[in-house]
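Hi R.,

As promised, here are both runs. First protein below:
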Amino acid sequence: MPELPEMENYKKLLVEKIKDNPITAVEVNREKSINTSVDSFRSKVGGSKIEDISRRAKYLLFHLDNGEILLLHLMLGGWMYYGTDEDKPDRTIQVKLSFGEKSLYFIGLRLGYLNIYSEKEIGYELQDLGPEPLDINFSLDRFLEITSSKRGKVKNTLVDQHFLSGIGNRYSDEVCWHAQINPNKQMNDLEIIEKTQLYQSIRHVLAEAIQYGGYMGTPLFKGDKSTGGFLNYFKVYNREGESCQRCGAILLRQEVSSRKTFYCPNCQK
C-alpha cells in the first residue's frame, strides 16, 4: 500500500502534469470506486480544472475550481498512470480523467477509491488523522508530548493513523531499524533518548524516501525516472535472511499484530 513518500511523490509529479489543465472527459468503469452515481460524478468533475493537488497522510486531494475535492486513497494494489491510450498499461482502468490527448488512469481501485466531497465534507472525512510527521510545526517537544502516555508496541504505534498520519508497514520497519529500536518494544518502556531518536528517524527516513521517489515499482508516466527509486534503499523491509547493513547479523521476519515485520535481532534489541 502506498504510504506518505509515495503519495508525496505522486503529488509533486502530478502538479507538474495536470495542474490548471481542464478535465475534458470523465470515464468511470467501476461505480464502487466512487461515492456517488456515475452521472453525478461526471457532471461535477467534467469541464472543471484542477487548481491544486495536496496530500494528507496517504491521501491525495485534487482541488477543483468549482469547489469540489477529489479524495484519492489507493489502498492495497492501487496505482496511477498518466499518458495516452497508446502507452497506457494493459490493465483494467477503474476511473479515467482526460486532459486533452493525455489522461490520468486510476488502476487497481478495488479497495481504494476516488471520492468527491465538498470542502466541508472533506474536513469531516479527514478529521481523525494524526499530525503530519514532516510538518514544520511537528516538533520534538510535540512528539514527546503525544508519546508521554502512549502504550502499545512501537510498530503498532507508528502505523496508527490516529497517532501519526502517513506511515505504514514498510516505513515503520525502516524507521525502527534506523532508530535501532525493536518494533516489539513497548512505547512506555522507551527512554527519552530513544523517543528522541525515534522522532529523528521518522523524519529522516520519510524525507529520504521522498527524495528517491518512494517504492512504487511502476512509473507514473512514460520516461518517469524518479518514481520507485527508494526500492534500492530499503534496509530491512522484505530483506529476511540478508545481512544487516549495520552490524552484519541476519535479518528476521515475524508477525507483529498480524503485520509482517522485518528487523535486525542484534542491533534492534
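And here is the second one, sequence first, then its C-alpha cells:
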Amino acid sequence: MLPYARQSVDESDVAAVAAAVTAPYLTTGPAVTAFEADVAAACGGVPAVAVTSGTAALHTAYAAAGVGPGSEVVVPPLTFVATAATAALLGARVVFADVDEATGCLDPAAAASAVTPRTAVVTSVDYAGLPGDVEALRRVADDAGALLLEDAAHSVGTTWRGRPVGGLADLTTLSFFATKNLTTAEGGAVLSPSPQLLARAAAFRNHGLVRDPAEQRWPDEGPWHQEVHAFGLNYRLPDVLCALGSSQLRRLPAFVARRAELSARYDAALADVPEVRTPHRPADADVAWHLYAARVPEQDRRRLFEHLRAHGIGVQVNYVPAHWHPVFADLGHRRGECPVAEQWYREEISLPLYVGLTDDEVDRVCDLVRGFFGA
C-alpha cells in the first residue's frame, strides 16, 4: 500500500537522537531549549514553547489566553476535532464559523458574524498548509476584543506576504506529528510575540509550577519550594524528541521544496480532468503543502476513494466537520450550521503527499484518478 503520508528520517536524524539518548538529560534539558530556539528561528524569531503534541499546543494556548467557562471561541469546522475540543475541555462555548469556499480556511465574514462580547479567541486553521486571510481575521479579532490564534499544525514552513507562519497571530500552535511537514514523532509548540502569553503557556505545560521566589506567596519555605498558582499539566516534550526536531528543522527548506514539486506535478497531471478541482494557490502565500486536498463530485468521492484503496493507494478524507461529531451534537450543534465546510467535506479527497514520494508514484496515482473518470 502506498501510504497517504509518511515521515522522512535520515541518518542525521538518527545521529541526533542517539546523541540525545546518551546525554545526561533525557528531558527538561538543553535539547529542549535548543529546539525552542530553532523553532523560533524558523518562524520569524517569535519565541516558542515546546509541548507534547499539536493537541497539547492548542490546549496550552487556550489556557494561556484565559479561555474558560463563560467565554466563547470561534473555530472553523474543517479541521481535526482537537481544535475545538481543547477549548471545550476548558469550559468554553465553541462557536463554529464557516470556511472560505476556495481555501477551506476560516471565512472572515463568517467569523465576524460569529463573534459576541463573550468571544475570547478567534481561531484560524491553516488548512492543508494554506494560511487564512490573516489581515482580515486580525481585524475581526481586534474589533471583538479577542485574541487571534493560528492553528498552524499543517503549515510550518509557509510564508504569508513574506512573513513566516508563527508570527502572524497573537498565538500560534504547531504540530510535529509523524505525518506533518517535520516531525518529533509526537510533539508541538506554542508561539507568541507576547511575553505574558508565552509565560502562561510555559507554566501550563509544566503543571503551573512557580519556582521564582519573587513570584511565590510563601517564598521562605525553603530552597526546594515550588507552588502552583493556576492548574497546568505535564506537556513537556523530552530532549530526545527535541533533538529529532532540531535535526528535522535543518531539512525543512528541502522538505517544503519537495512538497511544492509534488503538488505541482499533481496539478499538471490532473489539470484536464474536469471532475477534479485541484487546490487553490493564493498569490500572497508561499505554501508548505501538508496535504494535496483535491475535490471531486460528491457522488463520485466514495467510489474514487475505494477505487484507489483497491489499487494500493492510501488516500484519506480531511476532515469530518468538527461539529458533526456526536460530542458536539450532544452540545446542540447540528448539520447544516456551516454549509460551505460541509460541502467541502463531501467532495474532498487527500492524495498521497510526502517527501519520499517519487514522481513515478505521483504519476501512478494520477493515472488511476484519470482512468476512474475516463480521462
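A quick note on the second one: The chain has a mean pLDDT of 97. Let me know what you think.

Best,
J.
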